[in-house]
Please model this.
Amino acid sequence: MVERDETILLVDDEESILSSLRRLFRPDNYHICTALSAEEGLAILDQNPVWLVISDNGMPRTNGVQFLKEVRDRWPDVVRVMLTGYADLNSAMEAINRGEVYRFVTKPWDPEGLRLLVREGLEHYRLVQENTRMRALIEEQNAKLKRWNESLQQTVEERTKELKQRNEELAGLYRQLKGSFVEAIKVFTGLIELRDPTIGGHARRVAGLSKSLAAQMALREEEAKNVEVGALLHDIGKIGIPDEILRKNERLLSAGEQARLRQHPILGQAALQIVDHLDSTGVLIRHHHERWDGHGYPDELKGEAIPLGSRIIAVANAFDHHRKASSLGLADFVESQLGLGYNGPFDPAVILALKGIIDGSTVDGESIEVAMDVSQLREGLVLARDLRTSTGILLISKGETLKRAYLLKLILYERQKLIPSTVYVYHPRT
Ligand SMILES: [Fe+2]
Model:
């Protein structure tokens, strides 16, 4: 289908030629303009979107070559075709060479040849226009993309700057909060001690020793801080216990009073439960009276089921009471506890750490010997003494690591009284 916007302009000073050209192109349904002179032709080009011009060369005043040159200068995309007689061939060739004319056609023209040439010329115009349009579109999109990129980059930079600033503010705020948090806990502890002056600095000393024990046992910073805060607040639940119970010697308490006093770890945990940040500290406080041998309170937890932080606070607490009530020194306290091995109230590992603090050096756990019942032995422990049968036959040498296969045999031998019930192993490293 031919589009009506395919406009062609015919220029010739002879009406008859214009008429025959019109007739020639009628079947093609182009929009056709005609002009009898170059001047008239330029005026039409000024007013109409012409695609293609066919101009006679031999016209009075302005000839075809001059006319088409001006068309090229003012409307470079318009396709220019020149009609020429044989006499003008040279000037027509020159015009082509100078790029002023797309094609030339000699008179008399071959009708079908001219129609085909015009068809091709219009196609050429359409391609040039499409190309220009596409190029403009690409340039516009490129410019748009560039603007987007610039504004995106700017937005990212602004957001990054804002976030960085916000992070710094938050970090500063967090440091401030953390600092004032521990300070507030200390003030709080001072208030608890005001209630019972006899306690005098107990919580602070327990916290100090707990902190050293945590460091000796290489706890992570966050965990160590938790143990210290837990130690500072370990007896906070005593606020809820009547004065007459607190002031009595524990051994003289009635069963009811003792049960009431034993509520204080639970009351302490409950008091801290409203503060999110102190949840884990509350757990340490709840279990600070549990015993390694399982005879503590409130939950009668045993061994490693007791949180490590609570085991540390328990040792620090016991030592502080011991120092006040007994003439025995720290070293004696440690020795007496170590003698109990795994059967005492405290975690031997914490006692070893305490020994390390006294000795002023890190204790090598493997150099400490612990007595164990055969039933307590487990895979991976290292024998501290040769294990012999009752008749003196060597079963396992000192320094050997206990394997699962040994454990079963040892239990069988012990039941048959073939070996002693106590075996000496090195304290496992914590
Ligand atoms: Fe307590």
